[in-house]
Write a structure and sequence with these properties.
The complex is a heterodimer of chains A (113) and B (115).
Chain A lengths: L2 E4 L4 E4 L4 E3 L1 E4 L5 E7 L5 E7 L5 E4 L2 E4 L9 E3 L8 E8 L7 E3 L3 E6 L1
Parallel strand pairs in A: 2-12
Antiparallel strand pairs in A: 1-4, 3-9, 5-6, 5-10, 7-8, 8-9, 10-11, 10-12
Chain B lengths: L4 E3 L2 E4 L5 E6 L6 E8 L3 E9 L2 E4 L8 E7 L2 E6 L8 E8 L9 E2 L3 E5 L1
Parallel strand pairs in B: 2-11
Antiparallel strand pairs in B: 1-3, 3-8, 4-5, 4-9, 5-6, 7-8, 9-10, 9-11
The chains are: A mainly beta (113), B mainly beta (115).
């Protein structure tokens, strides 16, 4: 069945460091891929998405490219800030899954000054 | 738009009591999802609705849990009787489905503590 495998955390980086959080997926159809972010005490917010192969989603300096050949959707940011400290979730959704999402386990990121 | 609205934001109750969590989805969204989040189990899908009809409730832990969606603007998740292991944050999310690229919009959550 469809699933998402996400890089284990926690991840601790210094401010202005480069961030990569790996995400790979398994899907029988043509899913859309998402990254959500959860700040402490809050709900999940959509960070970025890509709906087809080779699409690049971007928002707030974060980027992820939908790679069908490697079934990946890795999240990257060139220079992280303390305010980026949060939990990041990779997710997959498609019509053949009944529009439900398959979420990764989440990766906790802490950025230190 | 006000986004997905959940109430209450916090609930503390004693074991054995009935708990009702409420959700108002974004207007025009056809799908509504209930999730539970704990440190041990992460984010779990409990049940979801399409056009007010339950589609998949396989994630509902046991018969103590029930969910309804009487109309397009309101859903409830009920736990009766509650147990300490039900302590978690419960999220409601809504989605326009394929029309919106399957994107889900989450509410702020209800933090439930059962003592």
């Amino acid at each position: 069945g469809d699933s998402v495998t996400q890089m284990e955390g926690p991840v601790t980086l210094s401010e202005e460091a480069f961030l990569t959080i790996n995400c790979t997926y398994t899907a029988t159809g043509y899913p859309s891929l998402f990254w959500y972010v959860q700040y402490p005490g809050e709900g999940l917010q959509l960070l970025l998405k890509a709906t087809k192969a080779d699409d690049k989603g971007s928002n707030k300096g974060f980027e992820a490219t939908y790679r069908k050949e490697t079934t990946s959707f890795h999240l990257e940011k060139g220079s992280v800030q303390v305010s980026d400290s949060a939990v990041y979730f990779c997710a997959l959704g498609a019509s053949n899954t009944g529009n439900q999402f398959y979420f990764g386990t989440g990766t906790s990121l802490t950025v230190i000054p | 738009d006000a986004g997905v609205i959940q109430s209450p934001r916090h609930e503390v109750t004693e074991m054995g009591q009935e708990v009702t969590l409420r959700c108002k989805p974004i207007s025009g969204h056809d799908y509504l999802f209930w999730y539970r989040q704990t440190m041990m189990r992460g984010l779990e899908l409990l049940i979801y609705f399409n056009n007010n009809v339950p589609i998949d409730d396989s994630g509902m832990p046991e018969d103590r849990f029930s969910a309804k969606m009487p109309n397009a603007s309101f859903s409830t998740l009920k736990i009766q009787p509650s147990e300490p292991r039900d302590s978690a944050v419960y999220f409601c999310a809504s989605s326009p489905g394929v029309a919106g690229g399957y994107e889900q919009y989450f509410g702020p959550g209800t933090r439930l503590t059962v003592t």
